[in-house]
């Protein structure tokens, strides 16, 4: 667990140092964020979903569990919004921190626990939850972010979102059996792999520890949603759909992941509180080292025979 999280923590810290000591030009960071959002992250999702192997797996049960638990926590966060002492853009960061997940770590852990079956299960999870999360986050930005939009504007933003388009394209290629052309496959794989280090460096570069004290409430709110409400909602949904064994473990892994660097990229692009989002991302990555083993231990105790 610690080995899977350590590179994430180190890259965030390294990004902070690079910007603090002005190793790169200040203009590099906005360009890097734009590259991640429009090219690297879409490549990651398109490649991962187009190459998924879904035979003999509980696709519907997995997808339904993930979508329903994500919707439940999203609605919970919106319901408690009036009780949270923060402005709209700050709430979008709490919202993202509560429902978005780090699929890099999730895939690594799923593959380590269950091998090829874990990779296939992770692909289903990504296919179900990535579009769901991105649509919900865009709706949150439209309602609570700096740039308020009409219904037409929201629809256009969803329809042209590069992450959603990449997911749709990957699912279509996988469902039709077309897959990726031989020459395009390694190129997209390489671009997708680059999204992890560059995205985390951008998160670290955005950290402002001088504002950390004012972030405590927001970090606590998003982390309670992420590490308590989300696993509980996922477990209840999974049990109702009869999931057990490896699929149940992978579902809980995904729903206990800390929020991803893509949350910061989205906050920067769509008018959220990007520095707060960077702080939530960094804090949850550290907290996940404790939360994920606790969730798995609880699952093992729950599922073991009495």
Automatic annotation (TrEMBL):
Q: Which domain of life is it from?
A: Bacteria
Q: Which InterPro entries match?
A: Mem_transp_PIN-like, Na+/solute_symporter_sf
Q: Which UniProt keywords apply?
A: Cell membrane, Membrane, Transmembrane, Transmembrane helix, Transport
Q: Which Gene3D superfamilies match?
A: 1.20.1530.20
A Pfam match is Mem_trans
Give the residue spans that cross the bilayer.
35-52, 59-80, 119-142, 163-184, 190-212, 224-243, 279-302
Transport listed as a keyword: yes
Record's family? Belongs to the auxin efflux carrier (TC 2.A.69) family.
Could you identify this protein by its name? Answer: Transporter
Provenance organism:
Muricoccus pecuniae
